Amino acid sequence: MAASSYNVSPLMKKVIGLAAIVLGFLLTATGYRYGSPEFTTVGIAMLALGLVLLVLMIVRRNQ
Asked: What does the UniProt keyword field contain (predicted)?
């Protein structure tokens, strides 16, 4: 299957974005609680990824 023919539904993009935000928040909180910089860094990265995915969907929809 070619990469250009692969299409993810908008609902799945929203779910993936929200799941990344929730997991990022949980990992950040866990890293902060136990003093683990690795968990904190991965959690912040997942939070950022989820926010970027949701913002890109909003920007694309409002064009």
From this structure: Membrane, Transmembrane, Transmembrane helix
